[in-house]
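Checked the freezer inventory, then went back to the computational side. Two predictions to log before the end of the day. The first one is the construct we discussed on Monday; recording sequence and tokens without edits.
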Amino acid sequence: MSLLTSSCYLLPWSKPAQIHGYLNFSKHSKLLRQECTTVRCCSSRSWQTPRAQHNYYELLGVSADSNAQEIREAYRKLQKQHHPDIVGQKGHKYTLLLNEAYEVLMKDDLRRKYDESINQMRIRLGENNTPLGNSTWKGPLRPQALFVDENACIGCRECVYHASNTFIMDEARGCARVKVQYGDTDQNIEVSIESCPVNCIYWVKREELAVLEFLIQPQPKAGYGVFGGGWERPANIFTAAESFKKQLRRQAT
């Protein structure tokens, strides 16, 4: 659901928690809806970009703000590596996908429409266009929110043990997540952060929360050629959020 200037809030904990600041949303992002979008290519055939479809930027291994030269170099490198003349028939479908990605990203109008299509995720907004995350809040809203990087979580349950009203264990994913922001006392939350052996609990700005919680959810992964399907999510959630913000900027211009 791709990919930010960083500002930090220091909290009065005895141990500084990890802090990230992203996603300073503007009026241009009031509602981003996920839906299937069809873009007509110059070859008169169409392609669709539902959630399960491949991300062209990830396919080419480039960032969302890459220029034409970077896209061209990445495309040529991958074509050489996976061309059927080199790897055999198994590379045929993959090179077709590379051709499709290259064709779209190298044309300004198609790229703009594609960027719009992959940014069409639903974000609930509160007052002053502040995104609302999946977790709920206890008491008044605060500038900072808790976020668990589920990629780094090892399922030790320490945070749940020390602050069970704030954190829950997602048995299906095998990791913890935030259920209620500030569901426990500040002291209990501090202890839960201290007890995390892998430092996967972050303090983030409240307005970041919706996108971070959305991006961390596993998304269906389409299979093609010799590659299988399954589920996936960004390996680095904060880099993914940064890429998403850049795409929003492109869309707003």
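The second is the one RB wanted added to the comparison set:
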Amino acid sequence: MKPDDLITSISPRMTEVKKKALKRLGLETLQDLLYYFPARYEHTSDIRPIGELVHGETAMIYGHIKTAKTGRTFKTRRPIAEAVIEDDTGTIKARWFSQPYIAKMLHPGMSVKVIGKVTGSEGKYYLANPKIEPAHIESTLFEEGSEDTHYPVYPETKGVTSLWIFHNVKKIIAGGVLESMSDPIPKALLKKYNLPKLETALIWMHMPQKLTQSQAARKRLAFEEVFLIQTLMQKNKREAEEKKALPVTIDRKALQSFIDSFPFTPTDSQTNAINDIVDDFSKNHPMMRLVEGDVGSGKTAVAAATTYMVATSRPSGQNFGNLQVAYMVPTEILAKQHFKTFIEFFKDHPIKIGLITGKECYKFPSKINGEIATRISKPQLTKWIANGEIPIVIGTHAIIQKKVEFKNLAYAIIDEQHRFGKV
């Protein structure tokens, strides 16, 4: 067995219904199944033998359906479902009042877990309206020496039971798949943070002898997820640093003059964010930054200041003309809001700004009145974007359509989650 083998390799007689059910759960390979973790664990010590049940207690029992039928109460003639459940110590009836359909869901020999209150008179005990569900464990869990066992309960879907998942996970582990899986976390880190190796963690997740093992396994697997994300980010960063970016001319005096025109004094945090981004502009590789802050904290001002630096840049010795900025936002309302805000920031500077959404396009300033924007056609706006005449373009996802081509796109701002204060 190998981790990337299909699940059908260990269950060759699988029905189409089960295949579709597994697909709904995102399970195709043996590794997928190994990483499909239990939603919770139950303990065999919580299970009460039927022969030891006491009147008035709420108990959990495991057993098999002996019989199941519908009927009516003697006096009121209310419809009921009634089942006889047995284990190695005895039998007990379960009754569901006004729920006769339950009997149709049960059949002789079916393994079930039942939780309910023991009522009735001595010798005629029954469980009244108990909760019942298919058993998620195998008979081996009730064998001698299994009195202190935790067993997994997996999220189910129609066609795939928790018991089926547990049975096949055991097959995979017994088949030696874990030994062929490489651990992505270096041994030094495992030792430093006292984490179990991958093989141990997966066994503890599916078959813990005590809950502390499953907790340690979850901690290790959570660490693995963060570790892999960080590793990928570092890889992407190294690859980005090997690429070339369009050079931006840094004129801090002009930038400060632009910032001084704001109708407010930037906070220290805004100033630091602007300086960090401008410092990155001076490097010859692409920049990737996240500006985070509460709504109204001034992220748009940071975007405007750094946009000014790019849009006014004319690299020495380079025939680029004006570099361009694309500012993409998630909604049309927000796009119009940013467009108006940028007009206020740039109204005293001869820099053209375009707005493109799925419904309409605008350009600032208007040829007739330099203080307002004018509505234009989309073909006209995309033409000006393509020839570099409009250096600042604000828009919705319409900004990334194939028909929208930039001449010298140097700076992209993506307002990814504006409701959470991220730019």
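For RB: The two ends are 47 Å apart (CA to CA). The first strand starts at residue 40 and ends at 43. Let me know if you want it refolded.
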